[in-house]
Design a protein that fits this description.
Elements (H helix, E strand, L loop, with lengths): L12 E8 L2 E8 H11 L12 H7 L12 H7 L5 H15 L7 H10 L8 H10 L3 E3 L7 E3 L1 H8 L29
Antiparallel strand pairs: 1-2, 3-4
Helix pairs in contact: 1-2, 4-5, 4-6, 4-7
Length: 188
């Protein structure tokens, strides 16, 4: 990657060259794009202090940015405003993907993070995990029984701190048998 700055004019242009397996980019970019790319390459978040718009820009170039922050999984879950167990499962999934480089995780990975976050063990973890799947916040990876990833819907819910998402996940309707009326029962 090479970047050349110029001092003339209002928008400082930089030249970006990036190539690798399946990608080749060679173009001039505005200063905020160049600075966000440098920040990401240097291990930062792509968000530069005092630079509006760099986080959206960095998200467009594929970074795993998230306005929810936290050094530990517990801080991350708290900052995400997750209140239900399925919401906490989605937040933990985003934490694993973004901060532990684990884009595919197991149920056990998530359950271990509850302990690491000093959250009480869910009383019915399988049910709550399925609610997170039915909410489309996480999904099975390639039909695997125990490999999951966070969906775009899940990531967006965590980023929005679960605002606007229904706190109640629709469950399957309960089917009841029709009652037999006393008039229809055979006499003995």
């Amino acid at each position: 990657m090479a970047m050349d700055g110029s001092d003339g004019g209002e928008a400082v242009a930089y030249h970006l060259s990036l190539s690798g397996t399946g990608i080749s980019v060679d173009r001039d970019v505005p200063e905020e794009v160049a600075l966000a790319v440098v920040s990401l390459v240097m291990g930062g978040s792509g968000v530069l202090p005092g630079r509006a718009g760099t986080s959206a820009l960095a998200a467009r170039v594929g970074s795993q940015l998230n306005p929810v922050s936290g050094d530990t999984v517990g801080e991350f879950v708290q900052a995400s405003d997750a209140s239900t167990i399925p919401e906490k499962i989605a937040a933990i999934g985003v934490f694993l993907a973004d901060y532990r480089d684990k884009s595919v995780f197991s149920r056990g990975d998530v359950k271990a993070q509850f302990r690491a976050a000093f959250e009480p063990n869910p009383s019915n973890f399988p049910r709550d995990f399925q609610k997170a799947v039915r909410s489309r916040w996480i999904a099975a990876s390639d039909g695997s029984k125990d490999a999951f990833f966070v969906t775009n819907t899940g990531r967006n819910a965590v980023v929005a701190r679960f605002e606007g998402s229904s706190r109640q996940v629709a469950s399957r309707p309960i089917r009841r048998r029709p009652r037999k009326s006393p008039a229809n029962t055979p006499a003995s």
